[in-house]
């Protein structure tokens, strides 16, 4: 009897494992995809808006390969340099693909409400925490928040006058909860004194360091009470689901 139960349990566990593998194989969530599928998805999405992509990839691969072959002529054995050239070419092409994909993503979403999340999603998640669209107006002026080494950063999108007033109100709320932690406000856009979408992530990384990792975690915990009291924002958040795989591939697995 015990043996029969053991067999049934083993069969059940085997079926569950197989079902989990099948679900992962057919999953539409990029987090479940193997690395090569993520890269292929990144290539397809990028190629749609970047007609020169193939030429850039060929130039990167060919340049690394030719350089290695030239070195192989003067520093034998040539076959070792050929292998290094192929490996280096693939690495160079991948780097170019991810760089072009990042630029294409910024171009694709520039000007759309909530597009700052595209840049925020590319920050190092071990150092930064971000909350998209913490508040918004009916005119689609929105404010996002990032918490990291530079303290609390509020990023506003929309009409400069309205969004600055919105961020000023949010800054006061955050200062009351954060107990002395600096709150920096940034208006995202192409105007004077604004930070473009494509430069937002780099701009945040260059801000002066004000918090240690333990302090970042503490500030994040304090902000939960503030967020819990907020009404739900009645607008869609962030980029389209089809871009999640691109963002993940650009950050690396």
Describe the 3D structure:
The model is unreliable at 238-253 (pLDDT under 50). The chain has two domains: 33-109, no CATH class; 116-234, no CATH class. It is built from nine helices and four strands; from the N terminus they run αααααβββαβααα. The protein is extended. It has helices spanning 2-25, 35-49, 53-74, 78-109, 116-120, 160-178, 197-206, 213-228, 244-251, and strands at residues 129-136, 142-148, 151-157, 183-187. With 253 residues, the protein is α+β, with helices and mostly antiparallel strands. A hairpin with a 5-residue loop joins β1 and β2 (142-148).
Compact overview of the structure:
With 253 residues, the chain is an alpha+beta fold. It is 60% helix and 11% strand. It has helices at 2-25, 35-49, 53-74, 78-109, 116-120, 160-178, 197-206, 213-228, 244-251, and strands at 129-136, 142-148, 151-157, 183-187.
Features:
253 residues, alpha+beta, 2 domains, 4-stranded mixed sheet
């Amino acid at each position: 009897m015990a043996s029969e139960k053991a067999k049934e349990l083993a069969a059940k566990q085997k079926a569950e494992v197989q079902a989990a593998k099948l679900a992962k194989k057919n999953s539409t969530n990029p987090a479940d995809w193997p690395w090569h599928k993520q890269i292929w998805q990144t290539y397809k999405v990028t190629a749609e808006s970047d007609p020169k992509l193939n030429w850039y990839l060929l130039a990167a691969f060919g340049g690394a390969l030719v350089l290695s072959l030239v070195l192989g002529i003067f520093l034998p054995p040539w076959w070792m340099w050929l292998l290094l050239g192929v490996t280096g070419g693939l690495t160079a092409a991948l780097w170019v693909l991810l760089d072009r994909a990042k630029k294409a993503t910024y171009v694709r979403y520039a000007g759309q409400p909530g597009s700052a999340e595209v840049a925020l999603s590319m920050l190092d998640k071990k150092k930064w925490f971000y909350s998209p669209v913490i508040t918004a107006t009916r005119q689609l002026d929105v404010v996002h928040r990032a918490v990291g080494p530079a303290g609390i950063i509020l990023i506003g999108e929309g009409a400069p006058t309205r969004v600055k007033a919105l961020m000023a109100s949010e800054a006061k709320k955050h200062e009351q909860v954060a107990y002395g932690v600096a709150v920096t406000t940034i208006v995202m856009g192409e105007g004077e004194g604004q930070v473009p979408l494509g430069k937002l992530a780099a701009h945040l990384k260059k801000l002066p360091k004000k918090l240690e990792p333990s302090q970042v975690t503490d500030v994040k915990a304090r902000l939960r009470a503030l967020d819990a009291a907020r009404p739900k924002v009645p607008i869609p958040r962030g980029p389209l689901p089809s871009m999640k795989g691109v963002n993940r591939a650009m950050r690396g697995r």
